[in-house]
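Thread: "does anyone have the structure for this chain?"

Original post by V.I.:
We have the sequence but no experimental structure in hand. Need at least a predicted one for the grant figures.
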Amino acid sequence: MSVRRVAQEREWKIDGLRISGLSWGDSALPTIIALHGWLDNAASFFRLAPLLENHQVIAIDLPGHGLSDDRSPDATYQIWDDLPQLSKIVEDVSSSPIVLMGHSRGAIISLFLAAVLSEKVSSIVALDALIPDPQPDGNVTDQLKKFIKERQNLINKKHTYLPTREAVIDRRCSVGLSLDAAEILARRSLLHVEGKGYFWRYDQRLKGASAVKFSKNDLSNFLSNIEIPVMLAIANDGYINGSADVDVISGELKRCEIVNVKGGHHFHMEESADYLSQIINDFLVREV
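Reply from O.Q.:
Generated one for you, tokens below.
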């Protein structure tokens, strides 16, 4: 790996929040902004980003994750809540259109951000997700009740401390992460408190239900209004392989390329990262 591809710490102060991140590559290169998945952090791209040598890659610790601040007690973590801060980061890092690359929840946020920043985003690379689960008809009130109840339960909930660092890593591996991937993410999320033990840092409110979910018609509207090219990479052992969502995505997007890649949901942190980088680089060269 060249010196220029070594990760550098980044930080922004936006709307009273300290937002941290990592960057790889020269700032003169075209920019990719990378958004991680639920309860992960910017180190999610530690293996993939250095391989995207034609771009500067900037990975963000979304609020409530990694080294970034939690939102204030009155705030929420709806999937669109990050858009204002991310819009300002886009303006800060590049005067030219950027690429959005997202994994899981970060891929969904990328879709929404591209929809509202249509002239500032040149393409989307989505890793094992692109749209959220649609809202069933007639379920709006029940969803809102669930949000209120879970938010009240979570706002003062304390983290579970474990006696050793290894115990926290093992718990993360139990949800499908490889040991190597968990160790990489731990650099920004695993903390130790003297006298209590070790824990995985994130805002507990991130585990609560959404207040509102989009309907199938809403999601179709989002997709049909995306004019830029989109590459959706689906993990063979991931979350959406064989899902009806894939048919919705391919049917609504005007310029969509779907590829299957070996590996699990965190395939961008596994051996598949090498192959994934090749198809991403090829996609971005074609779509310049």
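V.I.: this helps a lot. The chain has eight helices and ten strands.
O.Q.: and The mean pLDDT is 93.
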